[in-house]
Amino acid sequence: MKRIVILGLFFLGVLGIVYSLFVTGQNHTLIINNRFNEKGLSKNIVFQIEGYKDKKVRKNKKAIMNIKGKNKSFTLRIGDKKYIGKLKFSLNKGGELSIEKYLNDEIYFKDINQY
Q1: Res 54: pLDDT
Q2: Rounded to 5 degrees, what angle do the CA atoms 39, 44, 80 make?
Q3: Edge-to-edge, what's the strand order for the sheet holding 93-98?
Q4: What are the domain boundaries of the chain?
Q5: Mean pLDDT (whole number) for 31-55
Q6: How many beta carbons lie within 10 A of that of residue 29, not counting itself?
Q7: Domain 27-113 classified CATH 3.30.70?
Q8: Is the pLDDT of residue 90 over 90?
Q9: Pair type for strands 27-33 and 93-98
Q10: Each residue of 44-81: b (16+ CB within 10 Å) or e?
């Protein structure tokens, strides 16, 4: 009986480790959408996530990044101004970040199917 309990706890521990590695190591695709409805309002931006190379996005363009992990915070630089925000990915989902909606304090992050 004692052996069965020890084996059961061992397998539960292994399953917990496998799940946590799956969640933290999963790749997510992030689309940064810098297109505005009124094209004259769009500006060149620099998108920064700690641990990743800065992504420069020109006016009225989109950019793609591959990111590991479920929750990330980002910094958005437009000229001399800095904006800080958070991203939260669902399992097996990517996301699209709309710069126009972010600057207008609307819901700026939308889940998209990864595969």
Answers
A1: 92
A2: 120
A3: 62-68, 27-33, 93-98, 109-113
A4: 27-113
A5: 91
A6: 17
A7: no
A8: no
A9: parallel
A10: ebebbbeeeeebebeeeeebebebeeeebebebeeeee
